[in-house]
Amino acid sequence: MTRFSKGFTLVELIAIMVIVSILATSVIGSYNNYNRWQDINEQVLDMINTLRRARDYCMAANEKFYLTVTIGATDSYTLTYKDAKVALNLPGESSNVFTLPNYFDITASDVGTDLEFNILGEPTATKTITINTDERTINIVSPTGYIYAQ
What we know:
The protein is α+β, with helices and mostly antiparallel strands and 150 residues long. 35% of the residues lie in helices and 25% in strands. The chain has one helix at 10-61, and strands spanning 65-70, 76-81, 86-87, 97-99, 106-109, 115-117, 127-131, 136-140, 147-149.
């Protein structure tokens, strides 16, 4: 008498569960890395947009604009303008100091104490800000004043 099986054996089910759990573990690990990259990318784009807004605001006001990057326990950047280096509070912002989240690490910056933009929005020199060990770099190009990330 022949026996026809219409289901899976216990060994087959356990093998499938092991394979699925290995695949799920690799997918979850990749997803966490992707989320971290997305968070960093969002902060980079926010920083670029803030710098562009500040540059455009000062060009409209016919004033100089200064960018100061602080590297340390709390990475931040500060916006000032005019020759007296008055705090530049952009419309909709409550402060001129922008503190970056703890996962956003400025590891290198050649901006120095003050990068000056003239009244035409042109920086005095080409500068870079490197984020999280070469993951992203913000470039500020002289003499055009173009600010972009790579």
